[in-house]
Every structure is written in structure tokens, then in C-alpha cells.
Predict the 3D structure of the following.
Amino acid sequence: MSELIDNRAHRVRTLKGIIKELHGGAAPETVKERLKTIVQETDYSEIVAMEQELMAEGMPVEEIQSMCDLHSQLTREVLVQLPAKPVPPGHPADTFRRENEAIRGVLLRMREAMAAIERLPDEADPSAELLVWRQAYNDLMDIEKHYQRKEHALFPYLERYGITGPSKVMWAKDDEVRRYLKDLGAALQERGTTAGEWKLVAATLGQTVLSAVEEMIYKEENILLPMCLDTFTEDDWAEIWAASPRYGWCLVEPRSGYQPPESKLREAAHLPADKGVQLPTGTLTVQQLLGIFSTLPVDLTFVDAEDRVAFFSEGPDRIFSRSRAILGRKVQHCHPPKSVDVVERILTDFREGRQNVAEFWITFQGKFVHIRYFAVRDENGEYLGTLEVTQDLTRLRKLEGERRLLEYDAPAVN
């Protein structure tokens, strides 16, 4: 047993050393040949351990992200291709795999449309081929559901087991795919150009999207999902299964067959529903509190003094989806890496008493969204945490004049 452990540690050290050389500017082909000579085979756990150690030694996530695809190409020939662990139909891992297969089908349609344009004379009208390409692109945009569910339903559980490296790097790569898709979408909206111009779009933005999405599928199926299946308990998977519907499904829906054990989802309150909660300004039952939180025209999220998500409201029309899996999670891990610096600055300013409010307004999915962060303090001014309040102001911004007579905007509820 000790010999096996020593061999594994040696492979991780070797991988890490070679990857450091790559980051230092070594020629990929030279490093690749050395890697194949020194490391005959490795598995996903050693790749993960290598990344975790590099981060622990201070290598920035952004640097690992920038070289991530090259790492993947470098280690692919020595990575042991383990057979996919069987799971019941409808198991979260089964759904992720089936979604990836559907995404591959969309990528194939995109590739065929691009190839058809490539075969046209430069001066030809590519309208028919463009229609196929645009339809495939629209289908591919469903991938956002896949990435959201991965980021918010899988990553929190990896972090519970101390596995943070893959989620940080993979989330950053997801955001990279999102940027590529946005750029390609903008290009595909153009009209009246010749086949020659579309060939350039295909060779640049088109190929970039295809490569980035295919690379992510490889990482999910050969690193992420095997790691999750080896790490998570049945209760973990039950909670992931219960949290997944709020993010939706990508191109396919889950099959029936998976029967999760009783989920151990954490509840916001463990008091009986009719038990009163005494507050300085009155008493409310737990049922009434839940009713109030679900009726408020704002979304609330509270992060405690240790930067962990402690509570969020569950209204019928949340602007940003939330999963109960984020409860207890460090809020820094709930944001893509590019946003973490801003989150840290707000929390630090609130904690140290320099600021009490931070606000932003953005356009999101056609809505004008107002986001405010409030420092929450006790009667002595001690910092208790941060409250995020998010509200859709689209309708309110259009109000003019006055309404003094009773008039309902929605039909009566039966």
C-alpha cells in the first residue's frame, strides 16, 4: 500500500513540475514528449491533486485557467480512460451525460453548416446554410442551464469535501465559453454578407466555440463527473437531484428510474409552522414568516459574518436562481472568479465599518434589475453579515402621474 501511495505522490510531483515548466514558457511539444516518457499513466484524481497543489503554492486561478486547455491536451494521452460508472436513469450524473451527448449533436450540426459554407464560392449567398447555423446556435444557448446547474448544484458539494480547485478553474472556463458564445451570437445577427465573409467567422469565432465546448465536455466526463461519483454520498446526490429543477434542463429532460433516498435538505427553520417567533415589534409564526418572505417583491439573500450564505427567500419569480445547496457555502464561491474581487471589497468595507450600502443596476434578460447590499449590524454596531436585496424595477420605472382609485393589475385569485 505504501508503495502505491509513493508512486501516486511521485506522479503528482512530476505532473506539477512539468506543468510549471509549461507555465514558465517551455515548448509544449518538448514537455509533452517528456511527460509521456516519465508518466506512463495517471488518473483524474492525480490531475485534480496537481491543480490543487499549484493553487496552494500560490499560482493564481487565472493563470491555471489560461493554460487549462493546454494542460488537458498535454495529459490526455496519459490519462487513464476509466469506464463510466453506471448510475440509474434520471440520476443527476446520468442527466449531465445525456445533456453532453445532446450538446455534441448540436455541435455536429454547427460544424456541418460551417463546412457547407466553406464549400461555397466566396461570392455566393449562404442564406440557407446560415439558417442551419443560426438554428444550431440557438439550441446551443441552452447550455447555460447545464452550466448553471453544474456551478450551483455540484460545485458546493465538492467544496464541502475540500475540493475547490476544479470548481474555480472550471467556472472560469464556463465564463470563457459564455463570452465566446456571446461574440458568435453577435456575429450571426449580421445580414447581407457573402460566403467569403462567413468563412472568416467560421474559421475564427465558430471554431473557437466548437473547441471550447468540446473541451469542457471532455473535462466534465473524464474529471468532474468521475470525481463527483467517487466523492458524493447518496444523500448528497439526493439533495443535488432536488435542487436541479430550478436551473432547468439542457436539450433533454431527466429520465425516470432514479429513486433518491430521503433528502436531508437543510430547512430555513426547524420550529413547528405554528410556533410563534417573538420579535421586538410583534410575534409571527414560522408559517407567517415564510409567507411574508415568499410574497415580498424583492429577493433576499443573507451572508453571515463568516461570509457564508445563511438564508435566501424563495419568491415565485426570483431574478437569480438559488439552490439550497449554497446554504453554508462561502459567498466567494457563489460568484465567478472575475467577480470575486468586487465581492471581497464590499465585505471588507462593510466588516471594517467603512461603508454600509453598495448598489448596482443592470439589464438582465430584458429586465432592469436593482441590486443593493446592506451591512447588517447589532445594536452595538458589531457586524453580523450582509443582506443582498434584488428587485426588478422594470415596471416601476414606467410609472407616471398618480393612481388614487382602486384598480387591480392582476386577475382575481380563485
User: Anything to note?
Assistant: The first helix runs from residue 2 to 23. DSSP finds 13 helices and seven strands in the chain.
